Protein backbone atom coordinates (compact mmCIF):
# COMPACT_ATOMS: atom_id res chain seq x y z
CA UNK A 1 0.00 0.00 0.00
CA UNK A 2 0.97 3.69 -0.25
CA UNK A 3 1.50 4.48 3.46
CA UNK A 4 5.24 3.93 3.72
CA UNK A 5 5.92 6.27 0.77
CA UNK A 6 3.53 8.88 2.21
CA UNK A 7 5.12 8.71 5.66
CA UNK A 8 8.56 9.27 4.14
CA UNK A 9 7.79 11.90 1.50
CA UNK A 10 4.74 13.62 3.01
CA UNK A 11 3.71 14.11 -0.64
CA UNK A 12 -0.04 13.67 -0.43
CA UNK A 13 -0.60 15.79 -3.54
CA UNK A 14 1.30 13.34 -5.77
CA UNK A 15 -0.50 10.41 -4.18
CA UNK A 16 -3.78 12.21 -4.94
CA UNK A 17 -2.84 13.02 -8.54
CA UNK A 18 -1.81 9.37 -9.05
CA UNK A 19 -5.25 8.24 -7.83
CA UNK A 20 -7.68 10.51 -9.65
CA UNK A 21 -10.98 9.07 -8.46
CA UNK A 22 -10.50 6.95 -5.34
CA UNK A 23 -7.96 5.72 -2.81
CA UNK A 24 -8.47 3.07 -0.10
CA UNK A 25 -8.63 4.61 3.37
CA UNK A 26 -5.56 4.14 5.53
CA UNK A 27 -4.28 5.70 8.73
CA UNK A 28 -1.13 6.02 10.81
CA UNK A 29 0.09 7.97 13.81
CA UNK A 30 3.01 10.39 13.80
CA UNK A 31 5.58 10.26 16.56
CA UNK A 32 4.10 13.51 17.91
CA UNK A 33 0.82 11.65 18.42
CA UNK A 34 -1.08 13.21 15.50
CA UNK A 35 -3.38 10.66 13.86
CA UNK A 36 -3.24 10.89 10.06
CA UNK A 37 -6.29 9.49 8.24
CA UNK A 38 -6.30 9.26 4.47
CA UNK A 39 -10.06 9.14 3.93
CA UNK A 40 -10.07 9.11 0.11
CA UNK A 41 -8.03 10.51 -2.73
CA UNK A 42 -7.38 14.15 -1.97
CA UNK A 43 -8.95 13.94 1.49
CA UNK A 44 -6.68 13.76 4.53
CA UNK A 45 -7.62 14.38 8.17
CA UNK A 46 -5.23 15.28 10.96
CA UNK A 47 -6.14 14.81 14.62
CA UNK A 48 -3.45 15.97 17.06
CA UNK A 49 -3.11 14.06 20.32
CA UNK A 50 -4.40 17.07 22.27
CA UNK A 51 -6.59 19.08 19.96
CA UNK A 52 -8.16 22.47 20.62
CA UNK A 53 -11.70 23.71 20.09
CA UNK A 54 -11.60 24.35 16.34
CA UNK A 55 -12.55 22.01 13.49
CA UNK A 56 -10.93 23.42 10.37
CA UNK A 57 -11.56 22.46 6.71
CA UNK A 58 -9.11 23.78 4.11
CA UNK A 59 -10.06 22.92 0.54
CA UNK A 60 -8.34 23.68 -2.74
CA UNK A 61 -8.47 22.26 -6.30
CA UNK A 62 -12.24 22.38 -6.36
CA UNK A 63 -11.17 23.79 -9.71
CA UNK A 64 -8.06 21.94 -10.80
CA UNK A 65 -6.39 24.74 -12.74
CA UNK A 66 -6.31 27.04 -9.69
CA UNK A 67 -2.82 25.97 -8.64
CA UNK A 68 -1.59 28.51 -6.07
CA UNK A 69 -3.98 27.34 -3.33
CA UNK A 70 -3.05 23.74 -4.16
CA UNK A 71 0.63 24.59 -3.66
CA UNK A 72 -0.12 26.27 -0.32
CA UNK A 73 -2.08 23.28 1.00
CA UNK A 74 0.47 20.83 -0.40
CA UNK A 75 3.23 22.56 1.59
CA UNK A 76 1.15 22.59 4.78
CA UNK A 77 0.20 18.90 4.49
CA UNK A 78 3.79 17.85 3.83
CA UNK A 79 5.05 19.91 6.78
CA UNK A 80 2.53 18.23 9.10
CA UNK A 81 3.34 14.69 7.92
CA UNK A 82 7.09 15.33 8.19
CA UNK A 83 6.47 16.76 11.66
CA UNK A 84 7.90 20.13 10.73
CA UNK A 85 4.55 21.65 11.75
CA UNK A 86 2.66 20.60 14.89
CA UNK A 87 -1.11 21.08 14.70
CA UNK A 88 -3.20 22.51 17.51
CA UNK A 89 -6.61 21.62 16.05
CA UNK A 90 -8.39 18.96 13.97
CA UNK A 91 -7.84 19.77 10.29
CA UNK A 92 -9.40 18.27 7.16
CA UNK A 93 -7.54 19.08 3.94
CA UNK A 94 -9.31 18.50 0.63
CA UNK A 95 -7.95 18.55 -2.92
CA UNK A 96 -11.34 18.70 -4.55
CA UNK A 97 -10.98 17.48 -8.12
CA UNK A 98 -7.78 15.46 -8.75
CA UNK A 99 -8.55 14.61 -12.38
CA UNK A 100 -9.04 18.30 -13.19
CA UNK A 101 -5.64 19.04 -11.61
CA UNK A 102 -4.04 16.52 -13.97
CA UNK A 103 -5.69 17.95 -17.09
CA UNK A 104 -5.03 21.52 -15.93
CA UNK A 105 -8.66 22.50 -16.33
CA UNK A 106 -11.38 24.08 -14.19
CA UNK A 107 -13.32 20.80 -14.32
CA UNK A 108 -13.59 17.57 -16.33
CA UNK A 109 -17.30 17.21 -17.16
CA UNK A 110 -19.15 19.54 -14.81
CA UNK A 111 -18.21 22.42 -12.50
CA UNK A 112 -17.77 20.73 -9.11
CA UNK A 113 -18.48 24.03 -7.37
CA UNK A 114 -22.05 24.08 -8.63
CA UNK A 115 -22.90 20.58 -7.40
CA UNK A 116 -23.06 21.01 -3.65
CA UNK A 117 -26.04 21.35 -1.36
CA UNK A 118 -27.54 18.27 -2.97
CA UNK A 119 -27.43 19.30 -6.63
CA UNK A 120 -25.16 16.29 -7.27
CA UNK A 121 -28.16 14.00 -6.77
CA UNK A 122 -30.65 15.92 -8.86
CA UNK A 123 -31.68 14.83 -12.36
CA UNK A 124 -30.45 11.82 -14.27
CA UNK A 125 -26.94 13.01 -15.05
CA UNK A 126 -24.16 11.08 -13.32
CA UNK A 127 -20.45 11.79 -13.65
CA UNK A 128 -17.29 11.75 -11.56
CA UNK A 129 -17.79 15.33 -10.35
CA UNK A 130 -21.27 14.49 -9.08
CA UNK A 131 -19.98 11.40 -7.27
CA UNK A 132 -17.15 13.51 -5.82
CA UNK A 133 -19.49 16.26 -4.61
CA UNK A 134 -21.62 13.69 -2.78
CA UNK A 135 -18.53 12.13 -1.20
CA UNK A 136 -17.01 15.48 -0.20
CA UNK A 137 -20.28 16.48 1.44
CA UNK A 138 -20.20 13.25 3.45
CA UNK A 139 -16.55 13.71 4.49
CA UNK A 140 -17.22 17.26 5.68
CA UNK A 141 -20.38 16.12 7.50
CA UNK A 142 -18.49 13.36 9.31
CA UNK A 143 -15.61 15.69 10.13
CA UNK A 144 -17.88 18.26 11.76
CA UNK A 145 -20.38 15.92 13.42
CA UNK A 146 -18.14 13.11 14.70
CA UNK A 147 -17.05 15.23 17.67
CA UNK A 148 -19.00 16.89 20.46
CA UNK A 149 -21.51 19.59 19.55
CA UNK A 150 -20.77 23.27 20.02
CA UNK A 151 -17.19 23.29 18.74
CA UNK A 152 -15.97 26.07 16.47
CA UNK A 153 -16.19 25.21 12.76
CA UNK A 154 -14.61 26.91 9.76
CA UNK A 155 -14.13 26.03 6.10
CA UNK A 156 -11.94 28.10 3.80
CA UNK A 157 -12.32 27.04 0.17
CA UNK A 158 -9.27 28.41 -1.61
CA UNK A 159 -9.53 29.47 -5.24
CA UNK A 160 -7.97 31.78 -7.80
CA UNK A 161 -9.91 33.71 -10.41
CA UNK A 162 -9.89 33.30 -14.16
CA UNK A 163 -9.43 37.00 -14.83
CA UNK A 164 -7.25 39.64 -13.27
CA UNK A 165 -8.82 41.70 -10.56
CA UNK A 166 -8.59 45.31 -9.42
CA UNK A 167 -8.70 43.78 -5.93
CA UNK A 168 -6.21 40.93 -6.25
CA UNK A 169 -7.56 38.94 -3.34
CA UNK A 170 -11.19 38.81 -2.32
CA UNK A 171 -13.57 36.57 -0.46
CA UNK A 172 -17.15 35.53 -1.11
CA UNK A 173 -19.23 35.57 2.09
CA UNK A 174 -21.97 32.98 1.57
CA UNK A 175 -25.54 34.12 2.18
CA UNK A 176 -26.28 33.74 5.91
CA UNK A 177 -30.09 33.96 5.71
CA UNK A 178 -30.21 36.92 8.06
CA UNK A 179 -27.55 35.81 10.54
CA UNK A 180 -25.01 38.57 11.28
CA UNK A 181 -21.72 38.82 9.48
CA UNK A 182 -18.67 38.38 11.72
CA UNK A 183 -16.03 41.09 12.15
CA UNK A 184 -13.69 38.37 13.44
CA UNK A 185 -13.84 36.65 10.05
CA UNK A 186 -12.99 39.91 8.29
CA UNK A 187 -10.02 40.22 10.64
CA UNK A 188 -8.91 36.68 9.70
CA UNK A 189 -9.26 37.48 6.01
CA UNK A 190 -7.28 40.71 6.42
CA UNK A 191 -4.50 38.73 8.08
CA UNK A 192 -4.54 36.50 4.99
CA UNK A 193 -4.04 39.59 2.81
CA UNK A 194 -7.72 39.71 1.78
CA UNK A 195 -9.33 43.09 2.42
CA UNK A 196 -12.20 42.78 -0.05
CA UNK A 197 -15.37 40.82 0.71
CA UNK A 198 -18.50 40.22 -1.37
CA UNK A 199 -21.69 39.57 0.59
CA UNK A 200 -23.87 37.09 -1.26
CA UNK A 201 -27.61 37.66 -1.03
CA UNK A 202 -28.96 34.27 -2.05
CA UNK A 203 -28.44 30.57 -1.50
CA UNK A 204 -25.82 28.84 -3.64
CA UNK A 205 -24.57 25.40 -4.65
CA UNK A 206 -20.93 26.06 -3.81
CA UNK A 207 -18.73 24.18 -1.36
CA UNK A 208 -18.41 27.14 1.00
CA UNK A 209 -22.16 27.78 1.03
CA UNK A 210 -22.70 24.06 1.83
CA UNK A 211 -20.51 24.20 4.96
CA UNK A 212 -21.91 27.56 5.99
CA UNK A 213 -25.55 26.59 5.56
CA UNK A 214 -25.47 22.92 6.64
CA UNK A 215 -23.04 23.13 9.56
CA UNK A 216 -23.00 26.83 10.51
CA UNK A 217 -19.29 26.90 9.74
CA UNK A 218 -17.57 30.22 9.19
CA UNK A 219 -17.00 29.52 5.51
CA UNK A 220 -15.77 31.51 2.52
CA UNK A 221 -14.69 31.05 -1.03
CA UNK A 222 -11.38 32.91 -1.01
CA UNK A 223 -9.98 34.15 -4.31
CA UNK A 224 -6.24 34.43 -3.73
CA UNK A 225 -5.12 35.70 -7.12
CA UNK A 226 -5.28 34.67 -10.75
CA UNK A 227 -5.28 31.21 -12.34
CA UNK A 228 -1.75 30.10 -13.34
CA UNK A 229 -0.20 26.75 -14.31
CA UNK A 230 1.93 24.97 -11.71
CA UNK A 231 5.35 26.57 -11.46
CA UNK A 232 4.16 29.97 -12.72
CA UNK A 233 2.75 31.26 -9.44
CA UNK A 234 4.71 34.01 -7.70
CA UNK A 235 4.36 32.36 -4.29
CA UNK A 236 5.69 35.49 -2.58
CA UNK A 237 2.22 36.96 -3.23
CA UNK A 238 0.74 34.32 -0.93
CA UNK A 239 3.04 34.70 2.08
CA UNK A 240 0.44 36.37 4.31
CA UNK A 241 -2.14 33.77 3.40
CA UNK A 242 0.16 30.84 4.08
CA UNK A 243 1.44 32.34 7.33
CA UNK A 244 -2.07 33.01 8.62
CA UNK A 245 -3.35 29.56 7.66
CA UNK A 246 -0.29 28.07 9.35
CA UNK A 247 -1.07 30.05 12.50
CA UNK A 248 -4.75 29.06 12.32
CA UNK A 249 -3.99 25.34 12.35
CA UNK A 250 -0.95 25.33 14.64
CA UNK A 251 -1.80 27.90 17.32
CA UNK A 252 -4.46 27.60 20.01
CA UNK A 253 -5.67 31.05 18.92
CA UNK A 254 -4.56 34.02 16.81
CA UNK A 255 -4.36 37.69 17.86
CA UNK A 256 -5.57 39.83 14.98
CA UNK A 257 -5.15 43.57 14.27
CA UNK A 258 -7.98 45.52 15.90
CA UNK A 259 -11.03 45.74 13.68
CA UNK A 260 -11.14 48.96 11.65
CA UNK A 261 -13.86 49.19 9.02
CA UNK A 262 -11.65 51.46 6.90
CA UNK A 263 -9.33 48.48 6.34
CA UNK A 264 -11.96 46.80 4.17
CA UNK A 265 -13.66 47.18 0.83
CA UNK A 266 -17.08 45.57 1.11
CA UNK A 267 -19.52 44.89 -1.67
CA UNK A 268 -22.96 43.42 -1.82
CA UNK A 269 -24.04 41.35 -4.78
CA UNK A 270 -26.43 43.43 -6.85
CA UNK A 271 -27.51 40.69 -9.24
CA UNK A 272 -26.58 37.39 -10.88
CA UNK A 273 -26.80 37.13 -14.66
CA UNK A 274 -27.18 33.60 -15.99
CA UNK A 275 -26.42 32.40 -19.50
CA UNK A 276 -29.62 31.02 -21.03
CA UNK A 277 -28.77 31.23 -24.73
CA UNK A 278 -25.97 29.90 -26.90
CA UNK A 279 -25.35 33.46 -28.12
CA UNK A 280 -24.13 34.99 -24.87
CA UNK A 281 -21.48 37.72 -24.94
CA UNK A 282 -19.91 40.59 -23.04
CA UNK A 283 -19.13 43.97 -24.62
CA UNK A 284 -15.81 44.07 -22.78
CA UNK A 285 -12.64 42.10 -23.50
CA UNK A 286 -11.22 39.10 -21.67
CA UNK A 287 -8.72 41.53 -20.14
CA UNK A 288 -11.49 43.37 -18.29
CA UNK A 289 -10.74 42.81 -14.62
CA UNK A 290 -13.00 41.77 -11.78
CA UNK A 291 -14.37 44.86 -9.98
CA UNK A 292 -14.41 46.95 -13.17
CA UNK A 293 -17.24 49.48 -12.67
CA UNK A 294 -19.75 50.53 -15.31
CA UNK A 295 -21.79 53.69 -15.81
CA UNK A 296 -25.53 53.41 -15.27
CA UNK A 297 -27.11 52.38 -18.58
CA UNK A 298 -23.91 50.88 -19.98
CA UNK A 299 -24.21 47.45 -21.59
CA UNK A 300 -22.98 44.64 -19.34
CA UNK A 301 -23.97 41.49 -21.24
CA UNK A 302 -26.13 40.14 -24.05
CA UNK A 303 -27.97 36.85 -23.62
CA UNK A 304 -29.63 36.13 -26.96
CA UNK A 305 -31.92 39.14 -27.51
CA UNK A 306 -31.77 40.16 -23.84
CA UNK A 307 -29.53 43.13 -23.11
CA UNK A 308 -28.36 43.69 -19.54
CA UNK A 309 -27.54 47.31 -18.73
CA UNK A 310 -25.86 48.57 -15.57
CA UNK A 311 -28.70 49.59 -13.23
CA UNK A 312 -26.54 51.43 -10.72
CA UNK A 313 -23.72 53.93 -11.34
CA UNK A 314 -20.46 52.07 -10.74
CA UNK A 315 -22.07 48.60 -10.81
CA UNK A 316 -19.01 46.33 -10.99
CA UNK A 317 -18.44 42.96 -12.64
CA UNK A 318 -17.28 39.81 -10.88
CA UNK A 319 -16.47 36.39 -12.43
CA UNK A 320 -17.54 37.21 -16.01
CA UNK A 321 -17.52 33.93 -17.95
CA UNK A 322 -19.44 33.66 -21.25
CA UNK A 323 -18.48 29.98 -21.61
CA UNK A 324 -20.46 28.64 -18.67
CA UNK A 325 -23.03 25.92 -19.31
CA UNK A 326 -26.54 27.14 -20.17
CA UNK A 327 -28.42 28.03 -17.01
CA UNK A 328 -25.28 28.74 -15.02
CA UNK A 329 -23.96 32.00 -13.66
CA UNK A 330 -22.13 34.04 -16.31
CA UNK A 331 -21.70 37.21 -14.26
CA UNK A 332 -22.12 38.61 -10.78
CA UNK A 333 -22.40 42.35 -10.32
CA UNK A 334 -21.65 44.13 -7.06
CA UNK A 335 -22.10 47.55 -5.53
CA UNK A 336 -20.13 48.99 -2.60
CA UNK A 337 -21.44 48.73 0.94
CA UNK A 338 -20.24 49.80 4.38
CA UNK A 339 -19.86 48.02 7.70
CA UNK A 340 -23.12 48.50 9.59
CA UNK A 341 -25.08 47.06 12.48
CA UNK A 342 -25.37 43.76 10.60
CA UNK A 343 -21.72 43.08 11.51
CA UNK A 344 -21.05 41.78 15.00
O1 LIG B 1 -12.93 33.63 -11.99
C1 LIG B 1 -14.01 33.05 -12.16
O2 LIG B 1 -14.78 33.28 -13.11
C2 LIG B 1 -14.47 32.02 -11.14
C3 LIG B 1 -13.47 31.84 -10.00
C4 LIG B 1 -14.09 30.83 -9.08
O3 LIG B 1 -13.94 29.65 -9.25
N1 LIG B 1 -14.94 31.38 -8.20
C5 LIG B 1 -15.86 30.54 -7.49
C6 LIG B 1 -16.75 31.43 -6.63
C7 LIG B 1 -17.66 30.58 -5.79
C8 LIG B 1 -18.62 31.42 -4.98
O4 LIG B 1 -19.41 32.17 -5.59
O5 LIG B 1 -18.59 31.29 -3.73
C9 LIG B 1 -16.73 29.75 -8.47
O6 LIG B 1 -17.09 30.34 -9.49
O7 LIG B 1 -17.03 28.59 -8.18
ZN1 LIG C 1 -12.42 28.35 -8.53
Could you characterize the architecture of this molecule?
Transforms N(2)-succinylglutamate into succinate and glutamate. It is a single chain. This protein is α/β, with parallel strands linked by helices and 344 residues long. The protein folds into two domains: 3-261, 3-Layer(aba) Sandwich (Aminopeptidase); 270-334, OB fold (Dihydrolipoamide Acetyltransferase, E2P). Helix content is 24%, strand content 26%. The chain has eight helices and 16 strands. It has helices at residues 3-9, 12-17, 67-81, 98-103, 128-145, 183-191, 207-215, 239-250; strands spanning 26-29, 35-40, 43-47, 54-60, 90-95, 152-161, 170-173, 196-199, 218-226, 265-274, 280-281, 293-294, 299-303, 306-309, 315-318, 329-337. Strands 1-2-3-5-4-6-9-7-8-10-16-15-12 form a 13-stranded mixed sheet, sandwiched between helices. It has a three-stranded antiparallel sheet with strand order 11-13-14, with no helix packed on it. A hairpin with a 2-residue loop joins strand 13 (299-303) and strand 14. Helix 5 (128-145) packs parallel to helix 7 (207-215). The relative contact order is 0.13. Zinc ion (ZN) binds next to loops.
Key structural traits:
344 residues, alpha/beta, Aminopeptidase, OB fold (Dihydrolipoamide Acetyltransferase, E2P), 2 domains, 13-stranded mixed β-sheet, 3-stranded antiparallel β-sheet, 16 strands, 24% helix, binds zinc ion, zinc
